[in-house]
Design goal:
Length: 387
C-alpha cells in the first residue's frame, strides 16, 4: 500500500535529498565544533554556520546575521524570549489561536506575576484587530502572535499588528513555525522585534534545529535562559554581552545547521512563491472536493473555505464517526497519514468550536500531488459512508 504523507504542518517530509546529504557530509567529513578548534575543519564549520545565519537574515530581512540565534526549535526560542523578557507585573497580548509553545510559558510566568490577555478571533481563526486597543493595560509590554494557525491554517495580519505595536511602544514577537519558508516574512516591514522559527517545517531542515532573529534593542532587555561555555571570552565567568554568543551556550546542533543550510539553499533556488503556489493549489483542490461531503453532512470543514489568508492546512471533523477512528482507518486501510486531536493548541480549538473533540488535520507540502489529494478525499468518503 502506497503511503501518502499529509502531515507537513508537523514536519515536512520528505526533505530535499541535499538536506540528508549535507547532514551526512558534516558528520562524516567535517565533524568539528565551532569557536573551539584552531584548525582547518573547525574554520570550515564556522564558515558553514556563518553562511546559514546570512541565509536566514536575508530570508527574514533581519537586522544583521549576528542577530540570528540558533536553538533546538521554535519552542525553545519562544521560551528564551518570553522568560527572558517578562518580569512580575508585566502584561502581554496574545491571540486566542496560539500554540502551547506560547501559552505554556505564559501560564508558567503567570504564577510569577506576569499576566496576559487573549485577542479574540472569529470562528474561522481571523484576528479581531479592533479588539486590541481595549485590551491594553498600563503595564502591557509586548504582543506575542502566531503568524498562522497550526489547526486551521488561517494567516494572522502580522504587518497590521506590528504597526499597532510600533504605535503603542510595545515589543512584537512573532511565532513563524507554520509560515517560515512558505510565506514572505519581513522583520522591518512588519515591525517585528523578534521572529522565532523552526527548521524542520517550511525551511525543510532536519528536526532539532531552530532559532530566533532579534533586534539589538530587545536583546539587551532579555536575560539569557541558559548559560555556559561559548568558546569566546573564556577568561571570564560572566555571560557574553554580544550576539550571538549571549544566547548560544554549549555545543550547537551543527549537523542540523548543515541540513538547514541545504534546505534554505533549496528554497532560494526553487522560490518561496512557487512553493506557496503549489501548496495553495493542492489546498484549493482539497477544499473543492470536500465541499460535497460537507453539504451531505458527512464532515465539517474548519476555518476558511478558500485559500486566501491561509496556509496548506485543512482540518475537518467527521460528523458520525469518531475522529481518532477515522484517522486510524485513513492510515491503516488507505495509507493516508494525517494528525488527529488537539494539535497542542487547545485555545485555538475553543475559538474554532472544536474543543474538546479536536480535528483530523491534513497539511500539504512541496512533494504532495493532486493524486494525494484525490486519494485522501476518496478514502475519507469511503470511511464516512462505511464502505
Amino acid at each position: 500500500m502506497e503511503k501518502r504523507y499529509l502531515d507537513n504542518a508537523a514536519t515536512t517530509f520528505p526533505k530535499p535529498p541535499e538536506v540528508a546529504e549535507a547532514v551526512a557530509a558534516f558528520i562524516t567529513g567535517l565533524g568539528s565544533n565551532i569557536n573551539r578548534g584552531c584548525y582547518g575543519t573547525a574554520y570550515e564549520a564556522e564558515n558553514m554556520v556563518y553562511e546559514t545565519r546570512e541565509l536566514l537574515c536575508r530570508l527574514f530581512h533581519g537586522p544583521d546575521c549576528k542577530n540570528v540565534i540558533f536553538t533546538k526549535n521554535v519552542t525553545e526560542s519562544l521560551n528564551v524570549l518570553l522568560k527572558g523578557l517578562l518580569r512580575p507585573g508585566d502584561h502581554v497580548l496574545v491571540s486566542s489561536m496560539e500554540h502551547n509553545a506560547v501559552m505554556r510559558p505564559l501560564v508558567q510566568l503567570e504564577k510569577t506575576g506576569v499576566s496576559f490577555s487573549r485577542i479574540p478571533c472569529t470562528d474561522t481563526g481571523d484576528l479581531q484587530l479592533d479588539a486590541m486597543e481595549g485590551l491594553l493595560q498600563p503595564n502591557t509590554r509586548a504582543v506575542v502572535l502566531t503568524h498562522a494557525s497550526n489547526v486551521c491554517g488561517t494567516v494572522l495580519p502580522l504587518g497590521q499588528v506590528g504597526s499597532f505595536c510600533k504605535q503603542h511602544g510595545l515589543h512584537f514577537i512573532a511565532d513563524t513555525a507554520q509560515t517560515a519558508g512558505v510565506l514572505d516574512l519581513d522583520m522591518e516591514k512588519m515591525s517585528m522585534d523578534a521572529l522565532a522559527f523552526t527548521g524542520h517545517k517550511g525551511l525543510l531542515g532536519p528536526q532539532g534545529i531552530g532559532g530566533f532573529v532579534i533586534r539589538d534593542e530587545l536583546a539587551e532587555r532579555i536575560e539569557p535562559l541558559l548559560s555556559g561555555g561559548t568558546g569566546s571570552v573564556s577568561h571570564t565567568e560572566e555571560v557574553p554581552t554580544f550576539l550571538p554568543d549571549r544566547f548560544e551556550p554549549g555545543t550547537l546542533n551543527l549537523p542540523g545547521i548543515a541540513g538547514l543550510r541545504a534546505g534554505l539553499l533549496w528554497l532560494e533556488r526553487t522560490g518561496i512563491a512557487n512553493v506557496r503556489a503549489h501548496e495553495a493549489a493542492l489546498t484549493a483542490r482539497f477544499l473543492e472536493k470536500l465541499a460535497p461531503l460537507e453539504a451531505e453532512g458527512l464532515i465539517r470543514i474548519i476555518g476558511r473555505r478558500g485559500t486566501e489568508h491561509r496556509t496548506g492546512v485543512v482540518s475537518i471533523q467527521t460528523v458520525e464517526l469518531d475522529q481518532a477512528t477515522a484517522a486510524f482507518e485513513l492510515d491503516s486501510d488507505y495509507g493516508i497519514q494525517t494528525r488527529v486531536g488537539l494539535h497542542c493548541a487547545p485555545s485555538a480549538h475553543k475559538t474554532l468550536g472544536t474543543y474538546p473533540t479536536g480535528t483530523i488535520r491534513f497539511s500539504f507540502g512541496w512533494r504532495n500531488t493532486a493524486e494525494d489529494v484525490d486519494a485522501a478525499v476518496t478514502a475519507l468518503e469511503e470511511i464516512c459512508r462505511g464502505v
